[in-house]
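User: Small ask, check this?
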Amino acid sequence: MKVIVSKEIEQVCPDFVGACVEAKVVNSCYNSELWKEIHAISERFRAELTTETLKDVSGIAATRRVYRACGKDPSRYRPASEALIRRILQGKKLYQIDTLVDLINLASIVYGYSIGGFDADKMVGEQLTLGIGKADEPYEGIGRGLINIEGLPVYRDEIGGVGTPTSDHERTKITAQTTHLLVLINGYDGKEDSVRANALYIQELLRKYAGSDGGRFFVYK
């Protein structure tokens, strides 16, 4: 899969750097060892962060800036990484979905980047383009129904949007039957070393919990 960053994204975030991880995987309903890691990280974050200092985390702060630059209110349409950590800090339980989604959420929490996870076999075409959502552009967020993505960064395949930092699309979502995983890490803070580390961490989690050899990843700008 080729990933293109559009000029409209370059204009609002010239330092953007992303990473794409692609791997063959085996999904499962629940992995207790993975959730031990999630609980340990949650405890650490409760000790280190508040809902106010959370906004200063590099990846989250940068994504919020880009939302504003695109005309979107980041407090109404929260980036997924911020929403996940905020739940932890508020003492709420994280949603348990399945192993692939849960490990992607963990990777997002640890590094503060909003990460899209997709069933690659549901993508249409061989290219994804990162652009900005348009007025009245149809988009069905996972578990959210139709959402307004005008002003949100959005990845599109040949037939439309598949992922934003707030919510991925129902059409390409991960299910129990997913065997070909595609993960997109959004580094709006431009920190390539952190984005690469996040990709390597995802590969490690896939080897530990998803019956995978970790697949491959590449960086795009």
Observations:
- Helices lie at 7-12, 32-48, 58-70, 80-89, 99-111, 192-209.
- The chain has six helices and ten strands.
- The chain has a mean pLDDT of 97.
